[in-house]
Amino acid sequence: MTELVFITGASSGIGQALALRYYQGGARLALVARRTAEVERWAVEQQLDAARFKVYGADVADLDAMARTGRDCIAAQGLPDVVIANAGISVGMDTAHFDDLDVMRRTFATNNVGLAATFHPFVAAMNERGSGTLVGVASVAAIRGLPGHGAYSASKAAVVAYCESLRGECRPFGVKVVTLLPGYIDTPLTRGNRYSMPFLMQVDDFAEQAVRAIRVQVSYRVIPWQMGVLAKVMRLLPNALYDRLLASRPRKKRASE
Fold it and tell me: I need a labelling partner for 169 at 20 to 30 A (CA). Which of 9, 128, 219, 249 fits?
C-alpha cells in the first residue's frame, strides 16, 4: 500500500512544505492542525487528490484529542509509515515577568508533551508491526540557549533528549526515530524575528532535505548543514566568550510586545 505520512502543524510553514513534498513523492497524508479550514484551503489551492489525504482537527497539547486523532487515523487510513511531530510554538520570554512563566508552560505543553502525544497512539502498533519512523522536529536553538529564547531553547533541547531516549526504546522493534534540527527557515514563525538569521533557508528547500534525511533514517540531522557547523562551533566556545558574542543580540519578542 502507498506510504502514509502523519504530520502535525500542517496549517503553515514546515508542516505544509513537508506535506507537499511527500504528496509529490506519491504518499498519502494524514494532516493535523488546529486551523483545519486553512489546511483544506491550501489543499484545494495545491489541487491535492481528496482520496490521498485527510485532515484532522486537534491541538497537540490536548492529550485526549491527540489520542482520539491517532485512533481515527488508524481506523480511516491505516497505521502510518512515518509520523512527523512538527507542531510547535516559539514565543519570547523574560523570567522577570510573571506572565511569561505561562509562556514557558504553554511552550512545553506544545513542543514537548504535544510531541509525545503525537507519537503515543502509534508506538505500540509500530513496534508490533516491526517498522515505522517517528520524526521529532527540534531546532538548532536546542544546541545553545539564546537571549529571550529561554522557553523555546529549553523545549527544543528537551525534544533532542526525548527523541534520543525513544530511539533506544524503539530500536529493538525495528522502529526508527529521527531528530531534525532546522536552522533559520523562512516561515511565519521566523518572519517576526528582529535579529540576523544566518543561512536563512527557503521552506521548500528545507522540506526536500528533511524528507531525504527521513528516508535514509538518520538519527540526527541539522538542516542546513552550514548551520550545523556554526552551532557546533558555538557549542565549543567557552561560556565567557559566547556570552560576550551575544551581549548585543536583540532578544526575541515577548508575547506582549
Answer: 9
Strand locations in 94-163, DSSP E? 133-137
β-partners of residue 185 are 201
* Exposure on the CB side of residue 184, measured as CA atoms within 13 A: 15
In 130-221, where does DSSP find H-type helix?
150-170, 203-215
Kindly report the CA angle at 230 between 228 and 234, in degrees rounded to 5?
A: 115
pLDDT at position 38:
94
Active-site choice (22, 23, 152, 162) = 152
Pair 28, 22: CB distance under 8 Å: no
Residues in Cβ contact with 165 at an 8 Å cutoff, skipping those fewer than 6 apart: none
Residue range 26-73, pLDDT digits in tens = 999 999 999 999 999 999 999 999 999 999 999 999 999 999 999 999
Q: Any long-range contacts for 67-74 (C-beta under 8 Å, 24+ apart)?
A: 67/117, 67/120, 67/121, 69/32, 69/121, 70/120, 70/121, 70/122, 71/121, 73/6, 73/30, 73/121, 74/121, 74/122, 74/125
Cell numbers at 185, concatenated = 527557515
Tell the residue number behind the cell numbers 558574542, with chain if given. Answer: 245
**Contact predicate 18/84, CB 8 Å:** yes
> What's the rounded Cα separation, in Å, for the pair 219 and 168?
11
- Cα gap 195→177, rounded to integer Å: 32
Condensed to tens digits (0 to 9), the pLDDT of residues 126-138 reads: 999 999 999 999 9
- Say what the pTM is: 0.91
Reply yes or no on whether 242 is catalytic.
no
Rounded Cα distance, 191 and 94, in Å: 20
